[in-house]
Amino acid sequence: MSLITDEIKAKAEYYSGDEICQVKSKELLREIGMPNGLLPLRDIEECGYVRETGFVWLKQKKSITHKFEKIGKYTSYGTEVTAYVEQHKIKKLTGVKSKELLIWVTIGDIYIDDPASGKVTFQTPAGLSRTFPISAFQIAEEVKDGKEAEAKEAKKVNAAVEVKDA
């Protein structure tokens, strides 16, 4: 049964469609000070964020399993991922499991105790936890500031001028 009701959607910043949800999920992770690669979801149908409570949800077409290459860990994301977020914390997480040895373990909380440490901790509802480098969950993003856009535009203009001169 889905935790997302029409009442919750009415209070939320709500988006539908993979492209906008990909952008919004990464923006949210940046906003709360978490690595932008923690939620490598695909084909997201809808996402939402209730700022007053910190409740977040993402729905994707089908479950996926992702391997975080830098640490060699597999993580499974269900069709519906929900959580409560605050600065440097993702709490009461649902829909996410990590493979430890031969079993899938539910992840309940993800947090960064000390941002300067460069470590992120994943905790199960039973209280067991593992800590990894934040860099293992960080993905490179295109910088879209004005200077880079101007530089790209200048390169295009220069290329066009060179073609005309030849």
UniProtKB/TrEMBL annotation:
- Gene3D superfamilies associated with the record: At5g01610-like
Which SUPFAM superfamilies does the entry mention? At5g01610-like
Q: Which InterPro entries match?
A: At5g01610-like (IPR036758), DUF538 (IPR007493)
Q: What sections of the protein cross the membrane? A: none
Q: Which domain of life is it from?
A: Eukaryota
- Protein's name in the database: Plant/F25P12-18 protein
Record lineage: Eukaryota, Viridiplantae, Streptophyta, Embryophyta, Tracheophyta
